[in-house]
């Protein structure tokens, strides 16, 4: 993302607010001739995710490394509320996620770091041609929960995600969502990077859930419960630590960013750097016979290949920083494989 400016233009918040209110007014005018029950459609989902994070990705002892590691667990409940409209997308998606030993947690295996996120996602957009099946996606990658659905053949929408965390990691992140050909959705979210900075839906601090993106391949079929699902998802998510002014001053001075915080090791009582900075690429597969369970695998860690003479960057967010000439966040997390499964089912639907 771009360098943080201390003279933030607070009026940029008016852009998404006016956009949402204008769309909401149009949607309610359309719905006022119908009964109250016809104004909204909504869905409630629950789910859980378990991932096995394996050993280092190195040529030495590669097979042996895959038999050791840690297990990440996430549980979540989400809702998706939409205003019925012929061309507008006006949606609210609340999500509660609880997770440990996963992306967004400390990577110290001796630290029991339980995080609880309450995400409020507001989306406004336009769509073309309704279909008979829903498309599901997430506007922030802090959990596998879906917080947005729609049934348009083509759609363009903007999302503002407002996250409240039990460890005060509160933030706002913007997202852009594009659906094409009734089958494919491209999604990009950032707390202030290219495409988001002028919308005003991100806080522009470059911290915590700093960047995500995804490709979703939707099914045009329905499973036996008459619910839509995604055949395939390919997503990227990055979580970054934070210490006030460290990133901003490092960019100004052109210096490397020091470790954000220090914690004491329970075994040695020495101060060691907390390893929160990490990135992940995830591929998730599902099909009607197995739905609502999806299988997944991917890589997590620094996503940097280091040699004696150079280093190669593979993380999408770091590539954005490098291309813009900005300082990279320190990432000492070793790149590892992971694989697992996600259970994500609907418990109540009103269409």
List the helices and strands and how they pair.
Layout: H1 14-31, E1 40-56, H2 62-65, E2 70-83, E3 88-100, E4 115-137, E5 148-165, E6 171-180, E7 184-190, E8 208-218, E9 230-240, H3 246-253, E10 262-264, E11 271-273, E12 278-285, E13 293-301, E14 304-306, E15 311-313, H4 316-323, E16 336-350
Antiparallel strand pairs: 1-2, 1-16, 2-3, 3-4, 4-5, 5-6, 6-7, 7-8, 8-9, 9-12, 10-11, 12-13, 13-16, 14-15
Distance between the termini: 38 Å
For the secondary structure, the number of strands is 16
Order of helices and strands, N to C?
HEHEEEEEEEEHEEEEEEHE
Number of helices: 4
Uncertain runs: 1-21, 26-33, 268-274
**C-alpha geometry:** globular
Write out the strand line-up for the largest beta sheet, numbering strands in chain order.
1-2-3-4-5-6-7-8-9-12-13-16
What is the number of independent domains?
1
Helix share bin: 10-25%
Percent strand equals over 45%
Structural class: mainly beta
- Main beta sheet strand tally, sense and closure: 12 strands, antiparallel, barrel
Cα Rg: 21 Å
Could you tell me the mean pLDDT? 78
